[in-house]
Amino acid sequence: MNSRGHGEEVMFFVLFFLMVLMGVSISLGVLFFFSHKIDLRESDASLLNSRIRQCVFDYDVFDSSFNLSLCDLNADAISSSYYVNIEPSHGQSLTWGISDFKNQCYFRGLDARKDKPYCSSSTVSVRGETYTITVGTKTLTRGTL
Amino acid sequence: MNTKGQLSDNLMWTVSFSILVILFFTGIYFFISNQRNNAAYWEDFYAKEVGFLINSGKSGDVIYLDVTKATTIANKHKISAYDIFTFDNVDNYVSVHLSEGSAARFYFFNDVDVIPGEPSILLISEDIDTNRLYFTLR
Question: What is the pLDDT of residue A10?
């Protein structure tokens, strides 16, 4: 009879099972941590919003001769990766970039997604008019090579 | 009674279990270490970091940024330190390349030209053992 031997075999499997459990938990924790990319959406949107606000202060953005480069902003980059809307209290609004960001920003079903655009809004009063400025961005990098 | 046999069984059990534990922790160590040096994660991190600095800056600013982690990872993947960061002033993007076959691009909205320093990365800055990227906005 070797009852002690049986006990050790059982213990071996218990400890082995615990190690597998620890390994899986640690791996999932590490993978979860490193799968989260740095999130700059809020800062990026606020930064661009403040630049647009300054631009509205300095120039008549509704003038036909206005273009974004007057405010040191790159129109191509804004068209391809951002959404900018300047809405006066009276009259037509002015939009650059990806218009669909406006819908996506306020779509609650996308809240948990990291690639959901973030929108930043502000108002500015200048030359007797109040403008609502909305800026949206996903702040994503693009993989290449 | 078989004391010698039991002793030998116990020893075998202890030794095999110890080997298993060592293998387990070694595996976990290498897994975490590998994840910490995940090139895709750090490419994204540095592309956004540098892009955000460019967006925040204005013409005439000189920017220095500690990129020691980037140079360490690039070195492991045999990428030259001077090939890590590239700036395109026509399409307005910064590209970060830390391993063969991958890179991350970030498009900045600030309409400035980025002029990398010569060399673009200072491998040792003064007496501090860090690698710093430096560039000027114009």
Answer: 75
DSSP state, A94?
Answer: E
- Taking the C-alpha atoms of residue A114 and residue B44, their distance in angstroms, rounded to an integer, is 14
Residues of A in contact with B111 (CB under 8 A): 68-69, 72-74
Give the number of other Cβ atoms within 10 Å of residue B100's Cβ. 10
Note the pLDDT of residue B126. Answer: 58
Cα–Cα distance between A13 and A25 in angstroms, integer? 18
Tokens of A45: 């949107």
This prediction's pTM: 0.81
Q: Name the more confident of A36 and A54.
A: A54
pLDDT at A38 over 80: yes
Whether A8 and chain B come into contact, CB under 8 Å, resolves to yes
A3 Cβ under 8 Å from any chain B Cβ = no
Residue A4 C-alpha, separation from nearest chain B C-alpha, in angstroms: 9
Q: What is the ipTM for the molecules in this complex?
A: 0.79
H or E stretch including A122? strand A118-126
| Integer Cα distance of A39 and A140 in angstroms | 9
